Amino acid sequence: MRTFKGRPVIPGTCTAEALVSHGGFNTLASYQKSLMFGDKTAKCSDQNNADLYQKQMAGKALCLPQTIGSTTGGFVIFSAASMGRQPACMLFSKSIDSLAAAGAILSSVWTDAKMPVVDNLGDGFLKHVKTGMKISVSEDGTVTVE
Question: How confident is the model at residue 70 (pLDDT cuts 50, 70, 90)?
Answer without folding.
Answer: confident
